[in-house]
Amino acid sequence: MNRIASTVSVLSILAVSGLAMGQHTDGVILGDEIAPADRAGWLALGDALFEPVDIDALTGDTGNLGVEYAWGYYWVTHNGDSVTGTQVLIQYDSDWNEVESYLQITNSPAWGHRDGAAIESENRLFFGAEAGEFCEYVFDPGTQRLDLGASGIIGGGAGTVRALAWDPNNEVFYTKDFGGVIQYLDRDGFLIDVAAESTVSAYGAAFDPDAGTIWFNAYIDTALGTTAPNTRLVEWDPATRALTGREFDSVGSAPAGTTYHIPGGLDIAVDGDCVYAVAMNQGGPVDFVSYWEIAGDCAGGGCRADLDGDGVLTLFDFLAFQNAFDAGDIATADFDGDGVLTLFDFLAFQNEFDAGCP
Asked: Largest CB tally within 10 Å, which of 14, 30, 142, 185?
């Protein structure tokens, strides 16, 4: 891609905009579009990726709760339609073809396993359930199947182990049951600490390897219940024990005919320089999995600085950035990815402009 010499000072653009020291805080980033976004092939935090996957069509009915992606497979917890069916853990390949189905190792009388987490380097897969139940499965890389003989219930927290994430940086699990505290579990699944966070009602959790943070698959508003699409992804920082401010509504990607959906399990996956969320949605009439960009270049080969999409970096891209910034368009102008528009977004844009695009 060609690029003109960088003769336009970012400070001159700031002066023209009159917003050099201003800041936009327009709330959450809405993730309600199917990728790729119409911005020269690049995507941003909260943009939807791919088409959603109808999980009911794969498992045969509702009652699909958790999803984890590990060793190149999707692992879905299915409770057999709450009470009447058989609780199973189903292994799918990366194209959602069933590989194997396992009876869950659980004492849970109704729902069975909830959200999952994996320590891939140790070939371990974990799921939580009611009454603080914490289950460990062993993955056999030789057979590419679970070794049920080496698996079992190993520990547990307090209450239902619902949302679940493994933090390899701190070597700890985090679990959260709706709006309760975030519990810290050790490697064996036993409670060692808690952190208060009542503003997020979570069903799923996942570790973000790019930011070193935790994302929760949560309600937008608990008062809505299951009467409307009601899901968002929210980021929490273990270092500060506080929300980062990065979040986005995830209600926009659903199979045709979906009348409502609430959160389910969550995982964060990495493909090259693309970091994306894999979210289970418990819906009506179907449960489904949707995908959302978290970081990187998930569109592949995109050029963010080419905002007018003409294949060349020119003054008009600066003007397009200025217009987006002035309009408070976080999805387009938040180049440093912190969820607000500041001087640093201008600097990040200019750096990408100066570096050129492939």
From this structure: 185
Model pTM? 0.76
Burial of 87 (C-beta count, 10 Å sphere; 0-12/13-18/19+): buried
CB 131 within 8 A of CB 83: no
Instruction: Please state, in angstroms and rounded to a whole number, the distance separating the CA atoms of residues 303 and 213.
Output: 26
Q: Which two tokens stand for residue 97?
A: 């073809």
Query: If you average pLDDT over residues 5-16, what whole number do you get?
Result: 43
Mean pLDDT on 283-304: 83
- Side-chain half-sphere of 316: how many Cα atoms within 13 Å? 8
Give the pLDDT confidence of 31-64 residue by residue, as tens digits.
Answer: 333 333 333 345 678 988 888 999 999 998 889 9
Could you report the per-residue pLDDT of 65-85, keeping only the tens digit for each?
Answer: 999 999 999 999 998 755 556
Question: In sequence order, what are the residues at sequence separation of 6 or more whose Cβ sits closer than 8 angstroms to the Cβ of residue 99?
Answer: 73, 91, 92, 93, 144, 145
Q: Are the beta carbons of 281 and 288 closer than 8 angstroms?
A: yes
Cα separation, 291 vs 270, whole angstroms:
12
Q: Domain 48-296, what architecture?
A: 5 Propeller (2.115)
- Asked if the model's pLDDT at residue 12 lies above 60, the reply is no
| 10-17 and 315-326 helices, crossing angle to 10° | 40
What is the pLDDT confidence band of residue 320, given thresholds at 50, 70 and 90? confident
The closest of 52, 18, 23 to 35, measured between CA atoms, is 52
Buried b (16+ CB within 10 A) or exposed e, 301-336: ebbbbbbbeeeebbeebbebbbebbbeeebbbbbbb
Q: How many residues does the chain have?
A: 358
Q: What is the mean pLDDT of the chain?
A: 84
Q: Residue 35 has what DSSP assignment?
A: S
Q: What is the DSSP secondary structure assignment for residue 201, as one 8-state letter?
A: -
How close are the terminal C-alpha atoms of the chain, in Å?
6
